[in-house]
Predict the structure.
Amino acid sequence: RAKERAGNQYQMYSNDIESDSLEKIKLENDLFKALKHGNEFVLHYQPKVDMRTGNVIGMESLIRWEHPIYGLLPPKTFIPLAEETGIIAALGEWVIRESCRQMKEWYDEGMTNFVISANLSPQQLNQKNLVSTVAEILEETEVPPALLELELTENLIIHNTERTLSTIHELKQLGINISIDDFGTGYSSLGYLKDFPVDTLKIDKSFIDDITTNSSNAAITDTIITLAKSLQLDVIAEGVETQEQAHHLSEKGCHLIQGFYFSPPIEASEFKKQVSTIQTKR
Ligand code: C2E
Ligand code: MG
Ligand code: MG
Ligand code: MG
């Protein structure tokens, strides 16, 4: 109930920002301040699980804003505004740095086999200094590059320029991993896959939701899994909510699973405990 109400508030709130530009300006101002003071954003972490072993293989960092008045805001209420206003450059840099800082902390505590994934906004790929910034962060935090992954949306890759292509090549040369988020929603020819040095396809939640009842979505998912296999890419499913979906995917050859079935995104402090309960869940 309470959750539902909170959800409606977000809904009302985001409708308000569209219709009420004063409200939007206030939020934009808040966003600047929140970033400057640097303590109102927080990352939650969602485990990724290998169905063959039950092991957690990594986690995705997902940003939230602890707004002093509105409470914990999900990314959809402020990421679009951050993108519109250019704040995303600094915010996105914070996300990568904080993800790596947290990863290093876990690494030092013995969690050495996890790969941490951070989401990258399309605008960030156009930043001149993105590659050098990522290199700097890796050096500064002492995270092995192979343990960092950046998730790019398929749309970004479809509407690519020579520049985005070369930036992705340069990022790969740092030794990090590249994943295509929300894969399958881009309505593109798949030709671009041969040009882009990607490591992982992440099947969009929209195909997963009714995978056990909708034969079209099951077929699309099968095709993505086969495609990944023949291109020697990893494949992971997002938004997996039931054991049925998880088993279906694993039987079809998609063994990497992320979703509420194993865990919602959680605070860093809860992560270790969660890892041990996941092992028994599969
Ligand atoms: P995404 O990268 O595709 O992330 C997956 C979203 O699905 C997350 O929502 C996650 O909480 C949610 N999710 C995961 N498993 C399940 C499930 O089993 N059921 C359901 N119903 N939902 C599930 P969230 O955290 O609200 O993030 C939404 C989007 O906001 C992300 O989609 C991503 O595009 C963007 N985002 C989040 N963090 C960042 C960030 O640090 N930077 C940028 N640029 N974008 C971000
Ligand atoms: Mg993502
Ligand atoms: Mg996704
Ligand atoms: Mg998605």
User: Anything to note?
Assistant: The beta strands are 41-50, 55-67, 71-73, 115-119, 148-153, 177-183, 200-203, 234-237, 256-257. The first helix runs from residue 2 to 19.
